[in-house]
Model the fold of this input.
Amino acid sequence: MPSRNHLDKIGRKKKKKWTEEAMERALIEVKSGRCTVRRAAKEFGVPKSSLGDRVSGRVTPGSRSGPAQLITSADEELLVEFSLYMSKHGFPLTKQQLVSFASSIYKRQHRRVAFSKLGQTWWLNFRKRQEKNITIQPADNVVRGRTVSVRKEAVDQFFHLLSTVMEAHGLRDKPLQILNCNEVGFHLGRKRVILPKSASLGCKPTPGSRDHISILACFSATGEDIPPFIIYSKAYPGGVCYKTQGPPNALYGWSDSGCINSDLFKKWFLKHFLLHTPKERPLLLIFDGHKSPINLEVVEAARKEDVILLCLPPHCSHILQPLDAGLFVLLKQHFAALIGDGCATDTHYAVSKKEFSGVFKETYQVVKEEEGVRIVKEGFRKCGIYPLNHFAINKGHLMPLHSMGPAAGPSLSTSAQGVHAVGDVIAAGPSS
Done:
């Protein structure tokens, strides 16, 4: 038997729909004195209370009814603009990332609010409001994890994007203005365990390691460097000697994992990268932005400072990251040699957390002075980034499309016409 609430819901009369045009005509009739509010509301089919609010001036004619939008229409347009920028530069702008961007905008308008009110309801309403710019389309195939072979299509698309950006900004013959940043990890401890090769931005420390420290390094295609960013796990070492012993002008930070995250990348970009970069503009910064989402503030600052952010395709860092192509191996070899640890480069290093910055300073300076510039230049050349050469990539590392598995599910994508929301990921591409 149906419940009382169910019967009430069925029997409840639906509200009559009315248009702004009808409301305007009713308002004209009332203000001219030809009709009362009650009669005009009945004649034009509009709510009497809403008409009365407009007559009294409590509500501005033409204003939106219902609760106010959490962020303004102008800010929503800005949000779509940022989404397009990220997509056109290869970044995987997820639904969570877009909501995070919107939350940053919301918090600027509501500084006293401790948390953002933007959630699933806002997201669904945002998509409805932006339905002319947001469409659903199936996702591309994705290979999970870091593999020996990578998608040829992904590499081709990256080089097309890189070539387009370089041509548009006149960077083909300006190696000083082309930079790559990448993260390399050091596991500290005395246990000799062979570890898998660490990933790039957003790498994960090996379980069971005593301490993990990451270095975010940044070099231009000429071999010029930005002072390194040293990231400790869990907390800074005791005392302040780690700063005085470390490389000149180095930046320091910490995270639970000892790896880069969104907040640390924002700190590095705003307070360190922009301070030490060449004065020439524009600059092109290439990095793996898939595992460490970019803050809205970073995108805003990059656009303001004429820095072009370009994201490498997923799982391709071992063939497209210039610093992975030689410099990091050399750094670990010299680091191991300096502490008298003649083991392979992917093991725990017998050095304490307090001692690390001092040992790394010597390693970094030796590598820079002896072979660093040549190795960095060679890395950019081997990856085909500078000089720009798509054919520099070893074809043995590329996997054709027909060898891919089934589609990995829906994702978000954008085109020049707008943002295309598809499941979970936004990426550049034509609408279907």
The domain at 18-61 is CATH 1.10.10 (Arc Repressor Mutant, subunit A). The chain has three domains: 18-61, 73-130, 151-190+211-394. The mean pLDDT is 80.
